[in-house]
Amino acid sequence: MGYKSSPRPVFDRPTHIPYAEVTRHVWGDAGAGLVDDLIYASTDKIHQLVFGLAGGTGFKHSEDYRTVFGADEVLYVLSGTFGAANPETGEVRIVQEGEAIFFRKDTWHHGFSLSDKPVRVLEYFSPPPSTGASGVYARTRPYLEQSTYRQERFIGRWPMAADEEKQTATIKTLRDVDLLWELDPEDQGVITGLYAATEHLESGKTTVLPGRKSSMITRKGDECLYVLSGCLHVLCPDREGQVWFELNPGDGFFFPDGARHQYANLRGEPASFVFGVGPGLGDKGA
Asked: Is the pTM of this model over 0.85?
């Protein structure tokens, strides 16, 4: 069976996406491996999913499933130890739970569970597949015939060449110390660290402390989020019908371009979530 595109769930208004209702999809073949996707949203501006790998398994690429796309991507590790590799350059990144990676257009990538435990990874992708940036784009790229997981050019120069390796890396590892941090202008108990802020994708992690709430937010692109921990309340004041939503870990939420919204924490523990906005053009303001 050849390449088959993934489902593309879309929404026309602010929408709560409970974990139990997320669209399921499996992709791959004997050459690429099999990957279990949970696709939260796939609009014409943003693509959010969680993919899973069984312990000790991984994905590579094949003629039908070429893992090189025309998009900016952020991958955040939800659980397990994830090995991310660029098989063209030999780069390898070991990414633990709570850490992320970022890479840009035309970056070949493979992924592996580096223990006997499953790996779950949250992924943001923009421009999204609906624009032709995934499988359609991949089939236009020269096929990578051989894969390597070793950077030979640094052998004999390590660790003296560590700065060069960091500057030329196609896959960036992002830990909390690497994020671009900011505080909400109205309530400094809402803390955000950005993983990426490019022309295509803005992605970050936000923590709302107990009893705090964000300013009213309006984005210039579609936004989708994933709750990591705690209980997050979302207000969509202009939505018809229900305007308050309660989100728990594993739930998602989608906001179309221009939809006003606010985050609040009405419980006694911090609430944290990761978000992606496409295109990455910042806020319009309230």
From this structure: yes
